[in-house]
From TrEMBL:
Cellular location(s): Secreted, Extracellular space
Active-site residues, Swiss-Prot/TrEMBL: E287 (charge relay system), D291 (charge relay system), S484 (charge relay system)
Name of the protein this chain belongs to: Tripeptidyl-peptidase sed3
SMART domains reported in the protein's UniProt record: Pro-kuma_activ
């Protein structure tokens, strides 16, 4: 027989693992199948600790989105009147009832949570798999990605107490899977003959047809070489997956391709999640060097910051995407432009999580930040999947509150075949692009019928050179390609425009899309050749007007329309 002490100990253990009051549970999120490429490898070890996050329902997301559109639409009386940190947080902060209800649930289960977002809408907590399965009525298991061997612990469904339905947005990471196709641009040797580095007319050097440099971009897009003058106008470059920007390579790049700039021109560093930026030549990153060299090397004298996001991220499968936005939302003066050259397939992310992160972009956009992302490099196959039967949109390009940047190639320019573009399966088509996209779909007819969501948010929104771009890594020059080239190039143009606006006392452009699809459209040069094949199809053809290969930009014209 058990002794009284032993019996009490057993009862205490049971009470610690189970709530004293049983709650009626309701299915909250479910994934119909394991994402392509992953296989179920068995139950997760019961004692493995999971670092989870819970998103509380925000108080007024509709109000936030309306405010974003009001300050971002040129025809609006509120255009350019961006919100303050406090004004944005008022839209996002959860109700006191939501906070109290969720904290009571946690207390019942012996869980201590902490707030991890400026507005208090995200909570983090850590519990073992055994408790997570009980708490969420889930089945956390090990899933292995067959190509990479990468393993992760996820569940295909989870529930929450029915009385918390109006208070809890989502729990993460649960049904969101990691991105197995985080690929970086590869370098190839450039032609031996260097292109001219000084261009004084609109003529584009012949060498630009094989090698893109800052001088080529200045000639193609009318980008000025005159230095920016407003120090408060900031351009931020995000860095992930231990990609480091090398100062020595930047000096070599500037000395070779921007000799009119002091070779000492550099960037500042911000870090989060254990990020760093070591300077050994062997640790120089192709992506990080590309992004820094084509912001500092194109956005002449615009103050530039490299934000290194480490591997100790708190947002699970998002791998720092949400952390960096919450980091910037916590600043009193976030940068006016943020460029990111990473992404993943939309179908790896839960709809609730994608929507929550998209609303985080809306928060930053409402404060006057232009958020730019590379659209991806797999054509209509998203992040380069060869197994798709229907088109795979990328994320976050499907989010309507950021600007997706595709790629062009050659001189004269044509759409780059690798440039991802298409239609979101998560997000509806926003009103600012309805007319342009309708014209494209009418012309497209039944081509690719059934392979994409005709009513989804269409992307990319803009395109720029993204092939045969010269950079320096480890002291050596090379050529790279991908939409990861295009995003920092376009970000540089927007930063220069913001400098011009700030110099005459005007606000930054902020969220760009309502401008790009209205008054700014007259500044775009239409790309009408090429396509973006994938999924055993030719993808979408480039046509007159908007298409999933998109237009490219003329800086001089945009400057006129921005003012």
């Amino acid at each position: 027989m058990l002794t009284r002490v032993a019996l009490l100990a057993c009862l205490a253990a049971v009470c610690a693992a189970k709530p004293l009051v049983a709650r009626s549970m309701q299915l909250h999120e479910v994934r119909d199948e394991v994402p392509d490429g992953f296989v179920h490898s068995g139950a997760a070890p019961q004692d493995t600790v999971l670092n989870l996050r819970l998103a509380l329902v925000q108080s007024d997301t509709a109000g936030l989105q309306k405010a974003l559109m009001d300050v971002s639409t040129p025809s609006s009386a509120l255009y350019g009147q961006h919100l303050t940190k406090e004004e944005v947080e008022k839209f996002v902060a959860p109700s006191a009832d939501s906070v109290a209800a969720v904290n009571a649930w946690f207390a019942e289960n012996g869980i201590t949570a902490k707030t991890v977002s400026p507005a208090g809408d995200w909570l983090s907590f850590s519990i073992p798999v055994s408790q997570a399965n009980d708490l969420l009525d889930a089945d956390f298991s090990v899933f292995t990605h067959q190509e990479t061997g990468q393993t992760s612990i996820r569940t295909l469904a989870y529930s929450i107490p029915a009385d918390l339905k109006e208070h809890v947005d989502l729990v993460h990471p649960t049904i969101t899977f990691p991105n197995p196709f985080a690929r970086l641009p590869a370098m190839v040797a450039p032609p031996k003959a260097k292109p001219a580095v000084n261009v004084t007319s609109d003529a584009v050097p012949a060498s630009c047809s094989s090698t893109i440099t800052p001088a080529c971009l200045q000639a193609l897009y009318g980008i000025p070489t005159t230095p920016a003058t407003v120090s408060s106008n900031q351009l931020a470059v995000s860095g992930f997956i231990e990609q480091f920007a090398n100062q020595a390579d930047l000096r070599t790049f500037l000395s070779t391709l921007r000799p009119d700039l002091p070779a000492t021109t550099t960037f500042t560093l911000q870090t989060l999640d254990g990020g760093q930026n070591p300077q050994a030549a062997s640790e120089a990153g192709v992506e990080a060097n590309l992004d820094i060299q084509y912001t500092i090397g194109v956005a002449t004298k615009v103050p530039t910051t490299f934000i290194s996001v480490g591997e100790n991220f708190h947002d699970g499968a998002l791998e720092g995407f949400l952390d960096i936005i919450n980091f910037l939302l916590g600043e009193t003066a976030p940068p006016q432009v943020l460029t990111t050259s990473y992404g993943q397939n939309e179908n790896t992310i839960s709809r609730a999580l994608a929507n929550n992160l998209c609303n985080a972009y809306a928060q930053l956009g409402a404060r006057g930040t232009s958020i730019l992302f590379a659209s991806g490099d797999g054509g209509v196959a998203g992040s380069q999947s060869s197994r798709c039967t229907t088109f795979l949109p990328t994320f976050p390009s499907g989010c309507p509150f950021m600007t997706s940047v595709g790629a062009t190639t050659g001189v004269p320019e044509t759409s780059a075949s690798f440039s991802s573009g298409g239609f979101s399966n998560f997000f509806a088509q926003p009103s600012y692009q309805a007319s342009a996209v309708s014209t494209f779909l009418t012309a497209l007819g039944n081509t690719n019928s059934g392979k994409f969501n005709r009513s989804g948010r269409a992307f990319p929104d803009i395109a720029a050179q993204g092939d045969n771009v010269e950079i320096f890594v480890g002291g050596e020059s090379g050529l790279v390609g991908g939409t990861s080239c295009s995003s920092p190039i376009f970000a540089s143009v927007i930063s220069l425009l913001n400098d011009e606006l700030a110099a005459v006392g005007k606000p930054p452009l902020g969220f760009l899309n309502p401008f790009l699809y209205s008054t700014g459209a007259a500044a775009l040069n239409d790309i009408t050749t090429g396509s973006n094949p994938g999924c055993n199809t030719n993808g979408f053809p480039a046509r007159a007007g908007w298409d999933p290969d998109r237009c490219r930009l003329m800086m001089g014209k945009v400057e006129h329309h921005a003012k």
